[in-house]
């Protein structure tokens, strides 16, 4: 019997997992587009199609026009509109390829999603502790990116993309995906409440 090394094996997420990635990424892409419209409205003093200025605390303005909101010299909303296509392409590619893709492909994809997860938490930290405001559209992007990340972690570990040893960890994360995502949300929400007193502002 021939043993196939993980690097030469192919992997393919299940239909449910792929659809989850597509849905989360489509929502995040749409929100990124709305953020772009808001950004244009801020620059031109025109009314955006859908405003996110709800109160001095819940608003997009300080975040969108800050250096952190324009990491590469243009609005991060454009980054979202480009980067959230990645998980959509990966999921559709997996659905269209019965044989799946090799481990290196999924490892690069997982690291790509990890980068997005790290950026989301950096933006959340700066929004809460530096800008003192919460951007509602940004928060929707956070809400989509966090379960996307944990789902990718769970599947790649469980499927053996990183080798056989972490599979048990992937199974645990997959089983507890919803509670882990909820805890991640709660940590950010508690930080925002303690720093900004969000509930007291309404």
TrEMBL record:
Its main location: membrane. Pfam families: VKOR. Residues 14-156 form the Vitamin K epoxide reductase domain. It is a multi-pass membrane protein. Keywords: Disulfide bond, Membrane, Oxidoreductase, Quinone, Redox-active center, Transmembrane, Transmembrane helix. The chain crosses the membrane at residues 18-37, 71-92, 104-125, 131-157, 169-192. It is found in: Membrane. Belongs to the VKOR family. This is Vitamin K epoxide reductase domain-containing protein. It comes from Homoserinibacter gongjuensis.
């Amino acid at each position: 019997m021939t043993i196939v090394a993980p690097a030469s094996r192919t992997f393919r997420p299940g239909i449910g997992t792929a659809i989850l990635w597509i849905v989360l990424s489509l929502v995040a892409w749409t929100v990124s587009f709305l953020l772009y419209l808001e950004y244009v409205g801020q620059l031109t003093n025109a009314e955006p199609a859908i405003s996110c200025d709800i109160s001095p605390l819940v608003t997009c303005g300080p975040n969108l026009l800050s250096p952190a909101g324009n990491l590469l010299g243009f609005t991060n909303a454009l980054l979202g509109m480009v980067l959230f296509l990645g998980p959509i392409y990966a999921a559709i590619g997996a659905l269209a390829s019965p044989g799946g893709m090799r481990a290196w492909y999924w490892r690069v994809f997982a690291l790509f999603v990890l980068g997005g997860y790290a950026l989301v938490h950096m933006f959340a930290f700066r929004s809460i502790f530096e800008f003192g405001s919460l951007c509602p559209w940004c928060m929707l992007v956070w809400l989509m990116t966090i379960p996307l990340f944990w789902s990718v972690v769970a599947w790649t570990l469980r499927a053996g993309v990183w080798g056989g040893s972490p599979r048990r960890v992937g199974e645990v994360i997959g089983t507890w995906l919803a509670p882990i995502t909820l805890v991640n949300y709660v940590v950010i929400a508690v930080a925002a409440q303690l720093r900004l007193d969000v509930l007291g502002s309404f």
